[in-house]
């Protein structure tokens, strides 16, 4: 299957690392679940951003509109693991704290 | 259900005998006062427990908490029913039946309907053995999306045995939201509204004798799910309207735009007496409590409690109180509320509903609370979801609002987990006193720290029961 799959390196801010093989049309979340990695997720439809990852290198495409992400988030390389499928080998920052980047405390 | 059906269960469901004019025995109590007189002290609490949105690799759960002070496990989580999937964001939940079905012989308050706010999955849990809850059935998200709805929130049973759930978005997590109906076999029956009757949705309450339902507005799921973005307020993406429905016809009759005084109207509470058209809504972002009432066949609304923003040293802008939950005591004498950001739980005398009068408050948790720990445990966030004993003498609360919003305003909540606290209420003197002997710590679970959200009692409570 090597020729029909991309290699996705996952890094957590805690320093944890893992590597996934993600098949064409497969989402990063599905591949991570099959590998027993336990990435955070919520709606699985691209609306909630619980599964937010950041693309550090390589490219992904969203299978349906990533409604939870605003244009500024997409510009900054954020992607939704539940609907994102790689289009090249890539490196993704994952884990629950990546989604926390999307909004700040506006009063602070 | 009668005790005889569960001879081995010391805490089997009470059958609240109430021979009233219907001549049958259904669930609940004949009147709000009957609920006060006939109920026993709560001994078990059901609490929503969450791991969603953290790196804890475990599902959310229904926590069974021992609140019986005579028990050796008082204040402990004595059981947990894990959901079948991760990622639900358990939030609010409700019963298959309450006092509104008092006339329905054979119907019992036995099944909890527990939606996943993010997953749109709806769990039905049988509590016949109240400390050993079991799954009855699970409605998968696809069945919900078929009706172009998502993001289930408030669950109320309706008088004929059916269940109504407010849905905040369409199948894509955008607007409009609507209402999903389940039948008494816990199958999706369909949709109450026509798409577009309302745009935003959140909480609802109905007062059948007045033929009215009130629904409030948070935002589209795609707007609030990721967290709170002030830009969305500026762009009008957060709610500010009260939608009053003709209850029998299921149609919106009147919409009140609260404007800037009513930004993000969340919890909706009618007085319990079925005669009343009065009630309150907490406008969280404006930090006002809105009183509503009917006058000459039209509903009116005005702010009656206004919480001032507070300056936080070194911060850019004054911080709103954010009253995220309110509830009315079963005797309709007091309105309780929680100011999640400031860190305050309060009670107001509402014996004159248009002119609430502050009775007491406790400054605890949050950014400004005087009390920042109980039993040496750091509290972090302010009081959030409230529940009051039916007799009005004990107020309990948890501290999580919503996983992504917690991370934004009280990031330590993810690491420490939530707590459940209690205050003793003197409803004759109008006082609130923190009970420092009571603390439920959701931070010490084997899988990792958990958040805690809504609380319910097995025999009905101040936010579940409606009277016909």
In short:
The complex is a heterodimer of chains A (108) and B (468). Chain A has helices at residues 28-34, 71-75, 96-99, and strands at 5-12, 17-23, 52-57, 60-62, 78-80, 84-86, 90-94.
How are the SSEs ordered, and which strands pair?
The complex is a heterodimer of chains A (108) and B (468).
Chain A: E1 5-12, E2 17-23, H1 28-34, E3 52-57, E4 60-62, H2 71-75, E5 78-80, E6 84-86, E7 90-94, H3 96-99
Parallel strand pairs in A: 1-7
Antiparallel strand pairs in A: 1-2, 3-5, 3-7, 4-6
Chain B: H1 32-38, E1 44-50, E2 61-66, E3 77-82, E4 94-95, E5 111-115, E6 122-126, E7 134-139, H2 141-145, E8 150-157, E9 163-169, E10 178-182, E11 188-191, E12 204-207, E13 212-215, H3 221-224, H4 230-234, E14 241-246, E15 251-257, E16 265-270, E17 279-283, E18 288-295, E19 298-306, E20 323-328, E21 334-339, E22 344-349, E23 357-363, E24 373-374, E25 377-378, E26 386-388, E27 394-398, H5 403-409, H6 412-416, E28 419-426, E29 431-434, E30 440-441, E31 451-456
Antiparallel strand pairs in B: 1-2, 1-31, 2-3, 4-5, 5-6, 6-7, 8-9, 9-10, 10-11, 12-13, 13-14, 14-15, 16-17, 17-18, 18-19, 20-21, 21-22, 22-23, 24-25, 26-27, 27-28, 28-29, 28-30
Question: Your description of this structure?
Answer:
The complex is a heterodimer of chains A (108) and B (468). Chain A is of the alpha+beta class and 108 residues long. Chain A has one domain (2-98): Beta-grasp domain (Ubiquitin-like (UB roll)). Chain A has helices at 28-34, 71-75, 96-99; strands at 5-12, 17-23, 52-57, 60-62, 78-80, 84-86, 90-94. In chain A, the strands form 2 sheets. A 5-stranded mixed sheet of chain A has the order 2-1-7-3-5. A two-stranded antiparallel sheet of chain A has the order 4-6. In chain A, strand 1 and strand 2 form a beta hairpin. The longest helix of chain A is centred in the N-terminal third of the chain and has 7 residues, at 28-34. The radius of gyration of chain A is 13 Å and the shape is globular. Chain B is mainly beta and 468 residues long. Chain B has a single domain, classed as Methylamine Dehydrogenase, Chain H, CATH 2.130.10.10. Chain B has 6 helices and 31 strands. In chain B, the strands form 8 sheets. In chain B, strands 26, 27, 28, 29 and 30 form a 5-stranded antiparallel sheet that branches. A 4-stranded antiparallel sheet of chain B has the order 3-2-1-31, with no helix packed on it. A 4-stranded antiparallel sheet of chain B has the order 4-5-6-7. Mean pLDDT of chain B is 94; it is low at 1-23.
